[in-house]
User: What shape does this take?
Amino acid sequence: MLEDLIRHGFSPLLAVLTSDGVERFTAKSNLSFTDLLLPFASINCTVKYGQHAEPIGPSYCVSPKWFLSNCFKYYLLLDDISSGSNSSRTSSIFSRISAEYGAHNCYLLKFNSIYDDELTDPWRSHLESKYRGLEKGLSLAKQKVLSKTMGLTDDLISATNQSSLSGQLFSASQNNDSLVVNSSSVSASIHGQCISYDDRENITRMMESMIYESLLPWVEQQMRILNEQVIARRGISKSLTTGVRKWFGAAAAQQTTSITYAWDSGEMQIRRLADMCFIFGLYSYAHQLYQNVRKEFAVDQAWYYNAGALEMAALSYFLSTPKITAKQYPQHYMDDAINFYTTVSLKPILAMRATLLSATMLSSLELYIEACTQLISLTSSDDDLFSGILLEKASVYFGKANMRRKMAFHYVLAGHRMSKAGQKQLAMECYKKALPEYLSKRWIFAEDHILHTLAVRSEGKEEALSWCSLLIRPQSVQCGNQLRLFLKHYLWLLRQNQTDKNPVQMPIPLVDVQNIIVIYGEHPVEVIRDLITDVEALDNTDDRWINLAKAAYCALTGSFAGFRETVTVRTAYTDNSKVSSAPPLERIRVVLSLKNSMDFCLLLKDIHLEVSADQALLKENFIDEISLTPKCDWIPFEFSVIPKAFSGEMVIRSLLFNLVVDDITVACSLPLNIRGPRLNNTKKEMTSVLYGDDHRLCAKVTKERWPLLEIDLPPKREITAFCGQICRFDFSVTNVSIITTRAICIVTDHPKLLCVHEEKDPGSAVFCPVKCTLAADVSLGVFKLKHGDLVTGQSKRLRLEIRAPSVECTQQKISIMCYYLGDNNLSREQRHIIVIDARLILQTSLRLLDFATGACLLQLRNLVQNRSSLLARIKLLRIRPFINDKKNYFPERDQYPYVFLHPLQSRQVEIESEQLDSISFLVSGNAGASQLWFCDEIDDLPEWSAPDNLTDISCLVSPSSRADIEKKDFAVPELYLSFGIFWRASIVNSDSTASTVLGENFVLNPFPAGCSIPSCVHIFQSYSLQHLNENDGTKCQLSLPSTAIINQDLFAFICKISTPSFIIHHNFSEKRSCHIPIQISVTNNDICRRSCTITIHFLDFYLGKQTTDSETNSAIISESLHKCVVPPSDSSNHSPTSLQAAIVANRLCMHARVGFGCTQMFDVRLTVYCPSIYDIGCFRIVGLFDGDRTEVPIHVPSTYITVIDQRV
Assistant: This one.
C-alpha cells in the first residue's frame, strides 16, 4: 500500500492539449478528455492550458516546471464514426501527422458516440476521488475572499452603502455557489453513456500503445543521454577535487549563504537521472545515485539540496528492499533531512512532507513510537493547520501502537489546532474519535471539554442535543458556573428541537426511586419503619403485623375465612408483588426524596405527579416551587392524588415539573420506574439477573368507602421505666368517616404486659377492664371492646396500661394494633408500637421454707446505689397469688382452684437505697386472705393475663413421660401459680424533681414440680429456671442438681413419718429392748391422676450396705431434692444408710394400692437396744404407676428420735 502511495504521488505529469471538437465529443458523456482517460491510466493530475492563457493565483498554483528541456509529445487523432465522417479523409490526416511527428508518437482513436443507457459507469469512483474536497476548498476560498472584502469595505464604504455592497456580495456568492455545484455535479451525473464497450477497449489499447511504444522508449533514451552526460562531465579532476575537499575541508566553517546549482550542472544532472530512475521504478539504481549526489551536496555544504537527496535516498532504499527490517532502514537519513528543512533551509512545507513520508515508512515497519516522535517534534510551529495534521497523524499511530490514552489526547490536541486554523469539520472529526476513550472512564474534565465542544460546534441540532445530553450528569466535579452553563445550553437546545408538548426526561434532580413510600388513605399520618410489614419476615412466615391482623379478624368475625390483609403503606421493605386497594375520596400519598447533586441551585416549578387515569376522576395537588440548594442531601417531599370516585386501576408514571434556568423554562419529567426484587427461585432466575414486579405505584380504587377512626395515641412512643413499672395512657377514639363502625378490638404481641380498659358509659370517668383472650397463637392477645359500635362523629375513651418487662432491656418493642370493622364489612387497621427501656430498681425472691406447711419467705432488695444521683424509697403494698391457665381449661377465673395466703407477721415493709428486707407468710388451700395488703386497699388496678418472665417446666419432663401423658384419655389442666408483688416507689431525681411510680413484680411458684400446696388438691405446673435472665428481679431459691435426671414423678408422692413422741425415756436395766411405734403416710398426688402400688422395705445397717447402685442413685436424687426445699440449717442431716445403732422392725416389707388423691397409712413398730439418737426414716419406698414398668423412688424424710436411758 505504501509503494502504491509513493508511486501515485511521484508519477509523471502529463499535459493534455485538446481541440474544441474533442471537448464537444466528450461532453456528450458528461466528461472532459482527461476525465475520459482516468479509468484506463494512473493519471491523477492533469493541467489544461488554453490558447494564450496566463496563470492567475498564488505562487503554489502556477504551472510546474518541466522535468526535461525536451518534453515527450504524443498526438492523438479522435474520429467519431457516428457523425458520418469520411474515413479516407481521416486516414490522410493521420498519415500527415504521423509523417510529421513520427508513427510511434501518433495514434488514431475511433469512437461510435451512439447513446446507450444500459452502459456501466466506471468513471464515478475516479471522479469522486478527483473532485473530492473541491467544493469545500472553493467554499473556504469564498469565505476568505468575502472576509477580506468586508474588511476593506468597513473602512471605505459608509453605512448607507452597505446594503448595495451586500447585494453585490450575495450575487457573487451565488455565482461562486453555482461554480461549486457545477464542479460537484460532474461526479453526480451519469457518465459514459455515449462510449460503448468497444470504444472503452480502444482507449485501453491506446494507453498501452502510448506507454510501451512511445513513453518508455523515450524515457530510456533520456536516461541514456543523462548517464552519458554525467560520465562525460565527471572526470579525474572532479574526482580529485572532490576528494581533497572531502578530506581537507571538513574543518571549514559552515556556510551561511545558500548554494544554488545551475540547471545543467553535474550535480543536477545526477539528481535528474536519479529522479527519473525513481519515477519509473528503478529504485536500486536511484538509491546509488542519491547516495553519490548527497555526498557531493554535503561536501559543498548545500544543505537544502542535501536534505532532498537524503530524503530520496531513504525512500529509494525503502522501496528497493522488499523485506526491509527496522534495523536496515536508514532512519537517520530522514531525521537529518527533516532537521535541515526546519533549522537550516527553513522550509516548513518540505519538512512536513518529509515527516509524513518518514512516519508512513516507520509505521509500515511497526515503529509507531518513532513515527509519533517525528510527527510531534514539528507541532511547535505557529501554523495551526500543519500542527493539527501532524497531531492527527500521530494519534493514528498511537492507536496502532495500542496506546489508547495517548491517541485520544493527541486527537484532542489536533482538534484544538484545527479549530484554531478554521477547519471546524476536521476538528469535529478529531473530537469524535477521541471521545470513546474518555467517555464514562472517569476522565471527567476531558470528557466534558470534548462533549461541550461537540455540542456547541455541531451544525445539526439533534446531534448537538445528543452530545449535550451527556454533559448533564448527576455526579460531576465541574464547578457550579460551568455546570449551569451546560444545563442552560442543554435547555436551549431542547427548546429549539421541541416540536410537541411532551415533557423531556431529565437526569436531574436525583430521585430515590427504590425508597418511594406510598400511603393509601389518610392514615397513617407518618410512616415509621417499625410499623411496616417487613418482606423478610414474610419470607420467614413470622411477620407480627399479619399475625396480629389475622387474630383480630378471627376475634371479630369468628373465623379466618375471608381475611384479606389491609395494606395502607408500601415501602421498599414490604411485599409489593400485588396491587393494593385504595379507598375513594382519600389521598393516595407518595413520599419521595429529591437530591441536587449539582454545585448550583435548581429551581423547579409546578411539580406534580403524572397518573395514567381519567383526569376528570382525579384531583392532584401541585407544589408551586421547589428550590434545591447546591449539593443538598435527600429531601423528602409528599405528593398526593385524590380519586374522586371509583376509577379502577391507576398507575403513577412520573414526576412532572418545569425546570427553570435564567429565562429558559422547559417541561421535564422524572420517570418513577421501581425495580422489583431479584428473582432467585428457578434455575433460570438463579443463573441470570432477573427482577420481579413492584406494584407500589399501582392502586385499585374500591367502590365503597372505608371506615376510619381517629386515634389520638401516637404511632410510636418510647418509654424509660423501671422493671415491673406500670404506665397508664388514656386516649380517645373518634369515628371520622361516614361509615359506622360495628366492632373494635385491640391486639398485641405482648398480652402479659398489656391491659385495656374502656369507659363504662359515654362520658363516664369509670373504666371497665376488657377481657384478654388468647389467639390461636398463644403469644398474641386480643382485647375486644364490649361497645365497639361508633356512628359518624362519635367518640370513645380508652385506657391502656403497660407493665415494663421484669428484666432489664433496651428497645423492647410492644406491637399494638387497633382493628375495626365497618357496617359494610370493610375493615381497617391502625398500628402502634411502644418501645421500652427498662432497668431494675427492685429485686424480689421467694423461698420455700417448708413444703409441708407452705411456709415461704419473700425477700426484697432496693437496687438503687447510695452513691447514685437517684434516690428511691420502695414500699411493699400487696402480695397476691396469680393463677393462669395455659390451655384455657377454665374459661372463667372463678373456676380456678383457691390459693390463700396467711400472714405470719403484720408490719409495713419499706426499704431505702441498697437496703434488704424480708417477710414470711404461709401458702395453703385453707380459707384465708386471697391477697395480703400492707396498706389501704387500692381500687382500679390492672389485671394481667399472665406473668411475662415465667415459662413452664415442660422442658424438664422426659420425652417418654410427655408421650405417656399425651396418650391418656383424660386431659390434665395446666395451671401455673406465681405470686404478684405490688410495690410503690418514691423517686427523687438529680434535678430535685420527685415522682411516684407503681409496679408489680412476679415471682414464680417455689414449690417443686409435682408437689402440691398444702390442703390444695390441684398440683400446679412449675416454671423453667433456665429461661430466666440473671438480671431478672424475681428469683426463687430452687436449685436442681446438675447430675440428677429430673422426672416429674419424683414429686408425685408425699411421704410423712410420725411418732407419738420424739423423746423416749426407757430403763434398759429393767427391759433390754425399747419399742418405738411409728406411722408412715404416703399420699398419691400424681399430676396424671394415676393409681399406683406402694412398696415399703425396711433397711437396717447391713441391708443398707448391700443396696445396688441404682437404688443409691435414687436415694441421692431424693436426698438432693429434699435439700432444695428445706432450710439450710438442715443440710447436715445424715442419710438413713449412715452408721447408727441397730434398729429392728416388726414388718420388713409392706404393700398397698393407693388411688389418686388418697393417703395410705402404714403402722410399724421399731425396736432399739441402747440409748442413742436414731433416724427412723430407714425405709426404702417405691411406687409403681399403672401402665408403667418403671419404679419411682419416693422421698422419705429424715425423722430423728432420741432414746434416753433412765439410769443415767
About this structure: The longest helix spans residues 197-233. Residues 124-190 form one domain.
